[in-house]
């Protein structure tokens, strides 16, 4: 997962250790897609918001470069949504930077397939990120209600 995230060139890269912990502690709200040999080719990390237990937060979505353009991200998101709804989730939240058009398309098409509304607002402005290279604002997408 760490390698896939790194190779996207756009995701904030977390430590390899954090991805291992994520798989252990949040496996019910995350997805790892594997090829026929069992190697990871894509993943979605997510969690249920502790103060809003009907909200599934999608944190990172990544697909290995060799497997992009085949609808894998959409299938993983649908799988995660079905499991989330089964566990009581009624909405999905995610953040997307303005320049991340593939993620924007992924979540807009997800909402359209489910007949759900999308509300958007700035969650974290760029002034909150302590980086010399700058960081675009993170736009919160609230999608729901989920059927």
TrEMBL record:
What does the similarity note say? Belongs to the acetyltransferase family. EctA subfamily.
All residue ranges annotated as the N-acetyltransferase domain in the record: 1-143
Q: In which pathway does it act?
A: Amine and polyamine biosynthesis; ectoine biosynthesis; L-ectoine from L-aspartate 4-semialdehyde: step 2/3
Pfam families the UniProt entry points to: Acetyltransf_1
For this entry, the protein name equals: L-2,4-diaminobutyric acid acetyltransferase
Key word Phosphoprotein present: no
**Which Gene Ontology terms describe the biological processes this protein takes part in?**
ectoine biosynthetic process
Protein keywords:
Acyltransferase, Transferase
What Enzyme Commission number(s) appear in the record? 2.3.1.178
Q: Which Gene3D superfamilies match?
A: 3.40.630.30
- MF terms per GO, please? diaminobutyrate acetyltransferase activity
InterPro entries with a match to the protein in the record: Acyl_CoA_acyltransferase, Ectoine_EctA, GNAT_dom
């Amino acid at each position: 997962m760490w390698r896939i995230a790194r190779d996207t060139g756009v995701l904030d890269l977390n430590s390899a250790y954090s991805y291992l912990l994520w798989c252990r502690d949040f496996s019910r709200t995350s997805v790892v897609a594997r090829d026929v040999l069992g190697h990871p080719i894509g993943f979605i990390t997510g969690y249920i918001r502790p103060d809003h237990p009907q909200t599934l937060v999608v944190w990172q979505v990544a697909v290995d470069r060799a497997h992009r353009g085949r609808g894998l991200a959409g299938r993983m998101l649908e799988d995660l949504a079905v499991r989330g709804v089964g566990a009581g989730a009624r909405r999905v939240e995610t953040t997307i930077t303005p320049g991340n058009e593939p993620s924007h398309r992924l979540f807009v098409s997800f909402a359209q397939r489910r007949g759900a509304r999308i509300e958007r607002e700035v969650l974290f402005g760029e002034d909150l990120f302590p980086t010399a290279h700058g960081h675009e604002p993170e736009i919160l997408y609230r999608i729901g209600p989920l059927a």
